[in-house]
Amino acid sequence: MELVGKTIGIMGLGKIGLAAAKIYKAMGMEVIAYNRSENEEAKAFVKYVTKDEIFEKSDIIDLHLPLNDQTKDIINEDSISKMKDGVIIINTARGGLIDEDALMAGLDSGKIYGAALDVNKTEPINDDNPMLAYDNIIITPNMAWGPVETRQRLLEIAIDNIRAFQAGKAKNVVN
Predict the structure, then answer these.
(1) How many CB atoms lie under 10 A from the CB of residue 102?
(2) Could you give the CA distance from residue 90 to residue 7 in angstroms, rounded to a whole number?
(3) To the nearest 10°, the Cα dihedral for 66, 55, 59, 132?
(4) For 49-76, how does the pLDDT look when each residue is reduced to its tens digit (9 = 90+)?
(5) Which of 69, 52, 60, 59 is nearest to 92 (CA)?
């Protein structure tokens, strides 16, 4: 699927959501967002909308919300019914944001084209979780941040910190 011209709806525009919004905008996507407050920097390229507008207008919905009483199962049978046919759902935030039964029903009906989940309600995911049988769900083990290059960079930072400490020039010190 070509992303240029598609509408991405970001739910939760904190630091991570804002960083994602910048990437999506650079890919030529229209970026809309639902958030408790508006970020002045984001207003230059993000259109703030209501929760229902996210569901109704988005080709892709990207979740960056905390899990609380207001956000638990925010993706549910009702919200899915408001979504465009063929929507894609991405969740790298909290597993409890999605009602997994409603997600699978949406996938079965074709309402949802696919999902990318780095988090699930039960972690680690149970071997008998029916979502594992879906070809149109990508599930990562709550570490989508961990490509080989990222882990290598983290090791290099740790080694550099140790060497600096040994040389009497500690850095990245937490007080």
Answers:
(1) 18
(2) 13
(3) 60
(4) 999 999 999 999 999 999 999 999 999 9
(5) 60
